[in-house]
Amino acid sequence: MTHPSTSTKAYWEHFGHMADIGVRGFGTTLAEAFVQAALALTAVICDPATVRPQESVTVRCEAADPEFLFVDWLNAIVYEMALRHMVFGRFEVNIDDGVLTATLWGEPLDRERHQPAVEIKGATFTELAVTRQPDGLWRAQCVVDV
Amino acid sequence: MNIDRLHRVNDYTWRLDPTGAMRVPAIFYGDENLIRAMDDKVLEQAANVACLPGIVKASYAMPDAHWGYGFPIGGVAAFDAAQGGVVSAGGVGFDISCGVRTLLTGLRREDIEPVKESLADALYAEIPVGLGSRGRIRLDAAAMDAMLRGGAEWAVEQGYGEARDLDRIEEHGRAAGARPEAVSARAKERQRAEMGTLGSGNHYLEVQEVAEIFDAQTAERFGLHQGDVVVTIHCGSRGLGHQIGTEFLRSMQDAAQQHGIVLPDRELACAPIESEVGQTYLGAMRAAINCALANRQIITHLTRQVFARLLPQARLELLYDVSHNTCKLEEHRVDGERRRLYVHRKGATRAFGPHHPDLSAAFQETGQPVLIGGSMGTGSYILVGTSENDELSFASACHGAGRAMSRHQATRTWKGKDVIARLAERGILIRSPSARGVAEEAPEAYKDVRAVVEASDRAGLARLVARLVPLLCIKG
Fold this sequence. Notes:
The complex is a heterodimer. By secondary structure, chain A is α+β, with helices and mostly antiparallel strands.
């Protein structure tokens, strides 16, 4: 399953893990790859296109290691979803010297319209990778526990 | 799994001798088919666990083992604090104390049939299930801490269930040594609306029929007869446990490095038991165990209320409650010597045999019930702990079927409504808020649970007592 973004070379996909599911984002910048991976995270639960950007939430994470920063980023989204009973369909990410600041847009979970499949417990270090590929695209991925 | 490197100890026991940094061997339980069907990652992960400081005797994989996070799911390992032993958040997992409890009802299948549809509807209406569901209970800060200290004992004090239930829960319904102050504000906040909720994924509440008895004498002692109706609840410590798992998986990365522990895999992040991070984690994890026990106790209460309304002749008595994802301080015999060890069970069930001092009087003669959840279609099993298992895997057994197919593949293979229709043809009612969730949990996406429990029985981990088939299933 791959889902290209319309404006850039950025896209996201899921990858298989026996008990759980992997999320993977690609982008021309690190921040864009993180945005795409966040969309893949939402897609574990529901179709991101069905999520209306009604409310926004800001998050901040800090980690020197980009892979730890990626896990912290996904876990920040998981936390906001669980706490607010929301799903998010649009993300803006800024990464500067190991500090991530982001705005998440979404709405309260609507069980009829979103048809949520499963709750995400947390992002894991399994298959964790944040790397710049030979083609120049950034790739950020890990398995999430559901 | 490639078995070339394994030594066949007997038909159900396989050993990987220590190589490289492995301090102890890795032992795999299962028949040849199960072992061959396991992912190669299970071998790698069990071998990695064998490298951790202070590990005692062996790193074990149960017959339902599959690729997990650091530890295999179905992994068991014991550590000695005095020998630099470690505690690992990955070795416990995200859903701390996720577990199963089974309630006897005193009803027969024919009692259920006339009200089956309305019973399914009422249970689905009363028990919050699936993503986005909220419980009716809200705890203020003091009540949250009391719950985290008191577990099922707290729940009973609050009016959820009966005092006699506590005899039939591990550790009498309350993990000692819980430290609510070690649980972050975020973890508590995440739990605020989640008390008494079932969750999603593979969590469920099932009304089941006893379809087969393997050991009539033990079944009788457990109060199980063919045709009896029981209720089984599978859920865990909800958002609180997930958040604790998330936070300590991260902080133990730093702790391992600070203590000079070389990790073969980042996911094996751990801290010495006798360290600040280790002790803080144990305090928080025990609080999460109490959260899971309180949660299952509240859901039991809600279930009893539904039965009282629709089937007033029913009397729901707890058979037993087991936890799958834990680290517990226990006494075990190792080479003839009694030692107190921190036993990690990641997707494995504690299975104490007869005369174990930690079992209540009801199970002193028989050993404890070992409750094994299957998929929505294949059914579940009740086994009983054995005395010999203390020497086999620190009194641990399998916990379920284990997935045979990823969620991703399952949703591409089946549609939720077709799965529900197929099960309905077999008389199994499904109630779930999520069609996609049902597709991900299709019975065929799981391994054959029968092969897993038979291997556990033959290996001596626990003995088969009864098989249960679902009549209705409330699914997250």
